[in-house]
Design brief:
- The chain is α/β, with parallel strands linked by helices.
- The chain has one domain: Rossmann fold, CATH 3.40.50.10490.
- The protein has seven helices and five strands.
- Helix content is about 55%, strand content about 15%.
- The chain has a five-stranded parallel β-sheet with strand order 2-1-3-4-5, with helices on both faces.
- Helix 4 packs parallel to helix 5.
């Protein structure tokens, strides 16, 4: 067991180091885009599948409620939470459209669509990014591995360049918390 514990820890640390080494500027750009969106009265639309759906909800909660400081609520919405909408779209049309239809209904120029996909190849995340682009909504994605199809599709990608799915997902959570902290600091803290 000790070997698995140590190997898992090393994989997680290596993924985060690779992320920062290759994506530092993209992370800073995403922070600026999030701040611009919120200052402009836009909203952050978050979506993904499975663990990435949980990340979308987690990130929305941190923005709407609070992260490390008490401050006004920030406009963020996880498109992964309305089971009636999701299941009706999945049933009547396709699971591939569960996010793109919500983007079409709720998204407006000035918003930011932020998709999360460990592989970068989730069809419903791809369709949502395509729909957002059609509407003139800025798009960003968190991906892993080689970035998949989303790497070249979104306006901005923050890619964890490793193959281990758990390590990618752990790095996504770390960067999501970092985004919350940096947005708070720019809007309300030491960089305001």
């Amino acid at each position: 067991m000790d070997q698995l514990i140590d190997a898992g820890l090393e994989d997680s640390i290596a993924a985060k180091k690779a992320l920062v080494a290759s994506q530092r500027e993209n992370i800073k750009t995403l922070v600026h885009w999030l701040v611009e969106t919120l200052r402009g009265e836009g909203k952050i639309l978050l979506f993904g599948n499975g663990g990435s759906a949980a990340d979308a909800q987690h990130l929305a909660a941190e923005f709407v409620n609070r992260f490390l400081i008490n401050r006004r609520p920030l406009a963020a919405l996880a498109l992964t939470t309305d089971t009636s909408v999701i299941t009706s779209i999945g049933n009547d049309f396709s699971f591939d459209e569960i996010f793109s239809k919500q983007i079409a209904a709720l998204g407006r120029p000035g918003d930011l669509a932020l998709g999360i996909s460990t592989s970068g190849n989730s069809p419903n995340v791809i369709k949502a990014i395509e729909q957002a682009r059609l509407l003139g909504i800025r798009t960003a994605v968190l991906t892993g591995g080689d970035g998949g199809k989303l790497l070249g599709l979104a306006d901005l990608a923050v890619n964890v360049p490793v193959k281990s799915t758990p390590a990618i997902q752990e790095a996504h959570l770390w960067v999501e918390h970092l985004l919350c902290q940096l947005v708070d600091e720019v809007l309300f803290g030491r960089y305001a």
